[in-house]
Amino acid sequence: MPVVFREAGYRFHFFSNEGDPREPAHVHVTKDGADAKVWLYPLIEFAYNRGFDARTQRWILSVVEARRDEIEEVWNDHFA
Fold first, then answer.
1. Residue 46 near residue 36, CB atoms below 8 Å
2. What is the pLDDT of residue 60?
3. What percentage of the chain carries pLDDT values higher than 90?
């Protein structure tokens, strides 16, 4: 499970086995038993959210938007 980065105690990561065929680029976010999956394209949006409140969801989306290029680069390097 490659960790892309950690920020404010949240782990932003993806799984090495992301479906067959592989799903489009996205990132999983976890902290304290809550987790979410965020698509990178065409829009940055939640595929699902399990346990994060609305304020945290907005923060997660802002972090993913600010660091989308980094997330995508790690994704592409991992699956190349």
1. yes
2. 98
3. 88
CA distances from 7 to 14, 17, 31, 56 (A): 15, 24, 10, 13
Predicted pLDDT at 21: 86
SS (H, E, C) the chain: CCEEEEECCEEEECCCCCCCCCCCCEEEEEECCEEEEEECCCCCEEEEEECCCHHHHHHHHHHHHHCHHHHHHHHHHHHC
C-alpha–C-alpha distance, residues 29 and 58, integer Å: 13
Measured between its terminal Cα atoms, the distance across the chain in Å is 16
